[in-house]
Structure formats: C-alpha cells, structure tokens
Amino acid sequence: MSVLDNFDSWKDFLGDRLHQAQGKGMENSTVSGIAYEIGDYLATKVDAKNTEEKILRDLWTVASQDEKQAIANMMVKLVQDNGHTR
C-alpha cells in the first residue's frame, strides 16, 4: 500500500519528512517553499487517491499563488504532530 492511499499514512509520512528537515536545521521558510512545490506537483501530476487529496487538489486548482502558499503552510502545520520521528 502506498502512503498516498490513506490520508493518515500520508500525514505521517509528511510529518516524518518535516521532522527530519527540522532536525537538520532547515528553516521554516525553506520548508514552506518545498511544501508549495510539492503541493503544486501533486495537484498537477499525481492522481488523487482518496477524498482528502481530491479536496486539496480542487482547492489548489482554484487558488491564487498566495492562497496556494497558505495551503502549503497549513499542510506543514497539519503534519507537525504526525509521524514517528518527533
């Protein structure tokens, strides 16, 4: 099963990557920029695997650049307490 098949698994995966990046000293602005790039890639190149991803993709599609950055920032906040490495 792929981490994209289940939204909770996806959040844990993202949480693990976030904690790894923070542990290596990556700044929040850099994390935010990467989250934006990942969001854009997923929205345009990857089929949504579940309802939550479909909603995020649809929101991303209609959002302005500033709104997309806000969505990316919210995703970072959402996964801060997820993952196995905290």
UniProtKB/TrEMBL annotation:
The organism of origin for this protein: Terribacillus aidingensis
Highest taxon of source: Bacteria
Protein name, as recorded: DUF3243 domain-containing protein
UniProt xrefs under Pfam families: DUF3243
